């Protein structure tokens, strides 16, 4: 047999012996570490779910509850990982030093991502809004569907989801109308009509919607302006954001029908023009 082949076979045999010796020596440690890790993951998941359910039963904010539950899970997994590594005879101290050095370099490379997470932590702790609130920020308006550490997810009545990085939320002006959105409607009535009767009719019509529209604060109806063709009545209604357009269109139709039933004229834009007789030129 060729001498080079014999050398290669000897090297393979030596590697095989090393592998067998490793598993014979450390097999129980490896199996024990795997069992500890799997058991730790199961316990972390159970404890996280239990803590989340406990906080929800005590009506704690859902965003803060999820954040605390995630922190509990990560903490348990980290503790289990340290125990599993110790079972394998691996020292954690140099590993932590290496992770710290790598983390410093990675932190410099992903500053934008880390700023999103730090902003998300600020939102979770200060809670300028919670799930279900209607907010306007950076020219975007929607109802808060989810709050993550990296981004805030908004949605609207059409089901469109809008993702805003949290670094663009913290430090900005936020308009929060909670679960409702303000609708402002203007209706003109003729100058010959009785505005008090028209206002009473509109208020009665809106109160007929009951709990479908917000009654606290109650809808506001009054004279907004005096236009060229009629008296402008202003209506301000707080509508649930998730049904905003549906209720707005129904309210507009109901108010139109109410004014029509009361015989109150809704004028169209008009202008009176008078022609004056001028003496003819000589």
From TrEMBL:
> What does the UniProt entry say about where the protein is found?
Cell inner membrane; Cell membrane
Q: Which UniProt keywords apply?
A: Cell inner membrane, Cell membrane, Ion channel, Ion transport, Membrane, Transmembrane, Transmembrane helix, Transport
What are the TM regions of this chain, as residue ranges? 23-44, 64-86, 92-114
Residues annotated as domain Mechanosensitive ion channel MscS? 113-177
Annotated membrane topology: Multi-pass membrane protein
| Primary residence | membrane
Q: Where is the Mechanosensitive ion channel MscS C-terminal domain?
A: 184-266
Q: Which InterPro entries match?
A: LSM_dom_sf, MS_channel_C, MSC_TM_helix, MscS_archaea/bacteria_type, MscS_beta-dom_sf, MscS_channel_2nd, MscS_channel_C_sf, MscS_channel_TM-2
This protein's GO cellular component annotations are:
plasma membrane
One GO MF term on file is:
mechanosensitive monoatomic ion channel activity
Which Pfam family would be a valid example here?
MS_channel_2nd
Superkingdom of this entry's organism?
Bacteria
**Keyword Repeat assigned:** no
> PANTHER family annotated for this entry?
SMALL-CONDUCTANCE MECHANOSENSITIVE CHANNEL
Q: How does it assemble?
A: Homoheptamer.
Q: What family is this protein classified in?
A: Belongs to the MscS (TC 1.A.23) family.
Q: What does this protein do?
A: Mechanosensitive channel that participates in the regulation of osmotic pressure changes within the cell, opening in response to stretch forces in the membrane lipid bilayer, without the need for other proteins. Contributes to normal resistance to hypoosmotic shock. Forms an ion channel of 1.0 nanosiemens conductance with a slight preference for anions.
Protein name (record): Small-conductance mechanosensitive channel
The opening ranks of the lineage are: Bacteria, Pseudomonadati, Pseudomonadota, Gammaproteobacteria, Oceanospirillales
